Amino acid sequence: MKTETRTSSSFDVEKIRLDFPALHQEVHGKPLVYLDNAATSQKPRAVIDAITHFYERDCANVHRGVHTLSMRATESYEGAREKLKRFLNASSRKEIVFLRGTTEALNLVAQSWARPRLKPGDEIVLSRLEHHSNIVPWQILCEQTGAVLKVVPLNEHGEFELEAYRELLGERTRLVSVAHVSNALGSILPLEQIVADAHRVGAKVAVDGAQAVPHGPVDVQALDVDFYCISSHKMYGPTGIGCLYAKQELLEAMPPYQGGGDMIASVRFEGTTYNELPYKFEAGTPNIAGVIGFGAAVDYLASIDFAAAIEHENSLLEHATDLVGSLPGVRILGTAEHKVSVLSWVMQSAHPHDVGTILDQEGIAVRTGHHCAQPVMERFGVPATVRASFGIYNTHGELEALARGLEQVRKVFS
Questions:
Q1: Residue 372 designated active-site
Q2: What is the pLDDT of residues 39-61, one digit of tens each?
Q3: Which of 186, 184, 226, 222 is nearest to 203 (CA)?
Q4: Fold for domain 13-31+305-413?
Q5: Host H or E run for residue 206
Q6: What are the C-alpha distances in Å from 205 to residues 174, 228, 250, 286?
Q7: Which is the catalytic residue, given 142, 229, 243, 372?
Q8: pTM of the full predicted structure?
Q9: Could you count the other beta carbons within 10 Å of the beta carbon of residue 289?
């Protein structure tokens, strides 16, 4: 994921762009320049078509019917689970639980794995880089159990302080929960060392992988993570769907998160027998179309030269950093040695929201605000930043348009 080169001769970005219908429109009379991929990515035609096909041809509930439509829907739904198993290199399809996304997956871990196990004084270690979705569930859990939070600081580059982390670990550490990649800064956390150190003190590790999976391969077995949470919509799939990977022995020992529907094997008033994995955690009628679209997104990423796409994204980050960083009065936040396609900055003369509004008039979509990462903003002494985040379909020409848009901002506020 490290930035290395300016260009990639083996990646045909214009061909990739043809796959994404939303990119070919105008906003305020200007060609759309979509640089908000860390919030959500655009969807290729293959994903849109897969969802449409389900609703037009195979719309039925899964697992429960013997008729043809139900069997076709079930085959596509479970086929997507198998695709996610391969995508993350899980050891079994039983380790892939479909949920609404990374947020719900983290809440499931908090309430189903951690809540029955943590006692007053037990410790959960987070980093200051975390998205709110990887902070608030643990604060709620601490209120429920009497556990306490420990927070790993950041250095001036927006990097995880590994030595400070190691000092926080101890005999009361029960769980470490960190992002693989910061959504606000793009910093890549040293996950291999984080996991190894946590396991040495007997702690489990949960990972918010939402920002990592679109930008490089993830092998959960090689990383030896206990829980890994992802969202489809960050990786060119539909919104409202994601998955939790968890080691099978952990899932076997966890009680259900919700009750009803497909998570049961049998129900009597005297007691209920729960379904086998992974269905024990998939109560009710699932987001069938979303799961099928999720599987199509995995297929799409497998169909392209992913290594070349990553190289292309790295070249975009390098180019954008040069362009934006050379503007007078600009301060870039997050200069980690290892980072992915996120660039956050503030302009001396203009509030981030004003920057975003003027850029929108030029057809350029960026994100402004605290990016659901207020502790990061506090670390750098700012209320908000402008964030441009890049995907496989962005071009160097779009970065030049961004630079021209920022020059327009400077003129307005000079």
A1: yes
A2: 999 999 999 999 999 999 999 99
A3: 226
A4: Aspartate Aminotransferase, domain 1 (3.90.1150)
A5: strand 204-208
A6: 9, 9, 12, 27
A7: 372
A8: 0.95
A9: 22
